[in-house]
Design brief:
36% helix; alpha/beta; 9 strands; 3-stranded mixed beta sheet; globular; single chain; 16% strand
């Protein structure tokens, strides 16, 4: 990560059959309905660490990493702000891209394994023009709760700080997926904890980048513990 420039790569788009396109359209429509119907019933509480953003009215420009498992409540919380979200070039990524587009997000196609450099270039352009971007930072397939380094590099390139957050949900349904994804129950409580800013200097060397990466990982773990502690009787954390 020593070079500031990001080399452009041309990711290969997935090819979908007609049957796959129909399936993706139906499933993404159903998922959007579920998120919308449940989301509008949630009772949200949001708190901020000292040194964090002053509120959700100031979310742009920004770099926002969070764990993949809370993507459903986060999708509802930050809807209709035009936030760019890095989504993989896989079939799973196609489902996610279609769902989040319905909630006012801008899918940026790429991941740590495919198209990541191109995705970071697009996100850099968004941030530099006043936009906000988000990373499901242990995605697309884990390992769970292990952050990837993209936001740190993007923060150095743009001068915009990293703001990690987490959304805990009261007694959610926990799906049997690699990330133990949470699906909130209707009318349940959700608690959002937002970490303090992490700034990365434009001349940060490899050692400094590693320190900021460790700082981001620690921030994600810290806000996760804080938010989950609000629902001590919930079996909310996956194995």
């Amino acid at each position: 990560m020593s070079d500031k420039a990001i080399a452009v790569e041309e990711p290969r788009e997935i090819r979908l059959s007609a049957a796959e396109r129909i399936k993706i359209a139906m499933v993404s429509w159903l998922a959007s309905m579920v998120v919308g119907l449940i989301g509008c019933t949630l009772r949200m509480t949001i708190t901020f660490e000292e040194g964090s953003m002053p509120g959700l009215h100031v979310i742009s420009p920004g770099i926002y990493p969070f764990w993949h498992r809370c993507v459903l409540p986060a999708t509802w919380l930050f809807r209709n702000h035009g936030i760019g979200v890095l989504t993989s070039l896989s079939r799973d990524g196609e489902y996610i891209a279609r769902v989040i587009r319905r909630f006012g997000y801008v899918p940026v196609r790429g991941s740590s394994s495919r198209g990541g450099q191109r995705g970071l270039l697009e996100m850099e352009a968004m941030v530099k023009t006043g936009g906000a971007v988000a990373f499901t930072i242990d995605g697309p397939r884990g390992p769970r709760y292990v952050a990837k380094k993209g936001p740190v590099l993007l923060a150095r390139l743009t001068g915009i700080p990293i703001t990690a957050f987490y959304v805990a949900v009261e007694e959610p349904w926990v799906l049997k997926t690699w990330d133990a994804m949470v699906l909130p129950k209707p009318f349940s409580r959700a608690y959002v904890r937002v970490a303090k800013y992490i700034y990365v200097a434009p001349d940060a060397d490899d050692a400094a980048l590693d320190r900021h990466y460790a700082e981001m990982q620690a921030a994600l773990e810290r806000v996760t513990r804080f938010a989950e502690a609000q629902f001590p009787d919930s079996s909310n954390i996956g194995d």
